[in-house]
Amino acid sequence: MELSTESKIVLITLTGIAALFLIAINNCQAQLSDKEIGAIIKYTNYNCTLMNDIEPSINGSMKKKILKILKSYNYTKEYQENTFDCSERSIITSKLLKDKGFDTKIAYRFSSMGAHVWCIVFDKWDNGIFIECCYTKNNELGKLVSGNSENFEYDSAWIINDPNRYYEYIEEPEIRINESNYRNYIKYKR
To answer: Which domain holds residue 144?
Structure first.
């Protein structure tokens, strides 16, 4: 059976994505099992879009609104690696900002430090406001960071198209964040 040109392009693209991930994973210091690597590649192939050099937003009023929301809430649970870490925190923050009307996406990438997840809010020009959800004061939901800051490139990432499918592939079974329970993990500060 002869593949159509479109099918060949899709096959080449998926193969290329898998190869890029293997290169990235091999460069990571984090030790991942073959099962984890396979799950990440499978998830990425079907649910993510690669975006490089996202232009930072200069929309000051939008940044102020986001910052006010981030400072108005705290996580109710402390950071814990592989249980309540960057992925859960980013999903929670993203869902809250979406509920507030923002075009929010969850982003991730591999680096020499391992895998990391964060949020990006896009303005109407598709420029990004980057939100680090882990290293915050007083357990706040996040802090704004520049695209290339603190030895990390927030402006180039895999964008997770459907965060609701995240747990189908990534095994962190203790906490599964979804539309109905994410507010259980945040508290409004009065």
So the answer is: 49-188
In this structure, is residue 33 part of a structural domain? no
Residue 66 domain-assigned? Answer: yes
Length of the chain: 190
Task: Report the alpha-carbon distance of residue 153 to residue 167 in Å, rounded.
Answer: 25
CB 158 within 8 A of CB 48: yes
- Least confident stretch, 5-19, 38-52, 67-81, 106-120: 5-19
Q: With DSSP H G I counted as helix, E B as strand and the rest as coil, what are the percentages for the chain, rounded to 5?
A: 40, 25, 35
Helix (H) or strand (E) holding 145: strand 143-145
Burial of 101: CB neighbours in 10 Å, binned 0-12, 13-18, 19+: exposed
Residue 13 lies in a domain: no
Q: Does residue 34 sit within a domain?
A: no
**pLDDT over threshold 60, residue 18:** no
Residue for token pair 């994410």: 182
95 or 6, which is more confident: 95
More confident residue, 169 or 153: 153
pLDDT > 90: percent of the chain = 33
**CA pair distance 108, 73, nearest whole angstrom:** 23
CA distances from 187 to 162, 177, 183 (A): 25, 15, 8
Query: Domain count of the chain?
Result: 1
pTM greater than 0.90:
no
